[in-house]
Amino acid sequence: MKELDEGKQALFSKPLPQGKVQCTACNHYCVLSEGEFGKCGVRKNAGGKLYSTVYGHTQTLTVDPIEKKPLFHFKPGSHCLSVSTFGCNFACDFCQNFEMSQGFSKENAEGAFGFLEPEKIVQEALERKAEGISYTYTEPTIFVEFALDIMKIARKKKLYNVWVSNGFMTEQVLEAVSPFLDAINVDLKGSREFYERLCKARLEPVLKNIEWLFRHKVHLELTYLIVPGFNDRKEQFGEAIDFVLSLSEKIPLHFSAFHPQFKLSYLPPTPAGKVLEAQKLALEKGVKYAYAGNLGMQEDSFCPECKSLLVKRQNYSTQIVGIKGKKCSKCGLDLSKDFVF
């Protein structure tokens, strides 16, 4: 890899006249003049070329249960090495990881571990006995070149790759990443107004990308973070649920409680009853796997046919109790398309 002060030259870009460059990694499609950064703060025009300034600069390197992502139907009970850099292409007022996503210096986004080659990341995962690698905590799209290089090596070493994403990447990125992507959890944050007001982004590309991932058979789970007073009305839950059902009743849907953070630190935490209300509505409307997250309850998986317990979860401790040979051990329902074991 050619090392430059600016980082590594980006894969997803388009040269423009007068030394400008357009980033094509996400749907902001930032057009940058010399020296300018994109909205993410980590993709920069240097000499008329786009560079990723955080390539190799990892901010987190921790082993997490896969359920923490949350991914409940992919390799239940397994563990993954979580990798992130500084930066994000959203500017969410409620960000739960705002120190990494927005509270950093663009000129000094080196991360906590110095420079690490992709091979070193994979080696860390193997040495720590992780079964896979997750690209998480900040948006992996903004460090996609780094992620993609890691993913290719991880696949050769028989490690799985999972993303936790806001779903705002371009189709070009999806096409490049999907051959090496085993599972993804995408945030479905709320209405068009919610995205524009609180995330400084747009909903439509997210919906389009969720549809793309579903059509291309990437294991997909969705998370809806409930922010009091902004996206916690029953009709708002219903809109998100109806969209999920338009694709499949078996896409796992996680409703998550908000904890006061960043610019919305004045808000109260999401009441447990509100999360349970959303979960109940999803189940009543026909979603087969709906979960109440961040509460320590209502996280078990039940057979959609006979309602027997399939997977028991408590504080990231996971037990497969009702599945045998990829079937419900009680009624025999085929679960091979509902879970990845």
TrEMBL record:
Gene3D superfamilies, alphabetized: Aldolase class I (3.20.20.70)
Cofactor: [4Fe-4S] cluster
Transmembrane segments: none
GO molecular function: 4 iron, 4 sulfur cluster binding; catalytic activity; metal ion binding
Domain of life: Archaea
Assigned keywords, A-Z: 4Fe-4S, Iron, Iron-sulfur, Metal-binding, S-adenosyl-L-methionine
Record domain Radical SAM core: where: 73-294
Entry-linked CDD domains: Radical_SAM
Residues engaged in binding [4Fe-4S] cluster: 88, 92, 95
UniProt remark on cofactor binding: Binds 1 [4Fe-4S] cluster. The cluster is coordinated with 3 cysteines and an exchangeable S-adenosyl-L-methionine.
NCBIfam families named in the record: AmmeMemoSam_rS
PANTHER family the UniProt entry points to: PYRUVATE FORMATE-LYASE 1-ACTIVATING ENZYME, PYRUVATE FORMATE-LYASE-ACTIVATING ENZYME
Record's protein name: AmmeMemoRadiSam system radical SAM enzyme
Species: Candidatus Iainarchaeum sp
